[in-house]
Amino acid sequence: MFYVPSSYSDVIDEGKKLTFERKKGNCLACHMIEDGELAGNNGPPLIAMKARFPNKQDLFNQIWDATEKNPNSFMPPFGKHGILTKKEINKIVEYLYTL
């Protein structure tokens, strides 16, 4: 059965967990994130995300497959390669919009 979060804050919490989880988003491997431990520095810090990506779809697309805009990107194509589902990426986007 599909789990439907009871509130928007649940979506944010789930997005944060996915972002920090080593077997899923693992964004800390390359990015500095508020509250993150042992952050990497290969990617830009994940701050001011609404200003950097005013259109949520652009941020979704970046996570889905960063090589679409930059074929030399180090960022894995999380969606294209099945590391994250569309629903998981949407939760991550909602969390990143709080940063």
Q: Provide the CATH topology.
A: Cytochrome Bc1 Complex, Chain D, domain 2
Q: How many helices?
A: 4
Q: Please name the CATH architecture.
A: Orthogonal Bundle
Number of strands: 0
Q: Output the radius of gyration.
A: 13 Å
- The rough form would be described as globular
Domain count, please report it.
1
- Determine the mean pLDDT: 90
Notes on the structure:
It contains 4 helices and no strands. It is an all-alpha fold and 99 residues long. The protein has one domain (8-96): Orthogonal Bundle (Cytochrome Bc1 Complex, Chain D, domain 2), CATH 1.10.760. The model has no long low-confidence stretch (mean pLDDT 90).
Write the layout of secondary structure elements.
Blueprint: H1 8-20, H2 49-52, H3 56-64, H4 86-96
Helix pairs in contact: 1-4, 3-4
Based on the model shown, name its key terms.
4 helices; 99 residues; Cytochrome Bc1 Complex, Chain D, domain 2
Summarize the model shown.
The chain has helices at 8-20, 49-52, 56-64, 86-96. With 99 residues, the protein is an all-alpha fold.
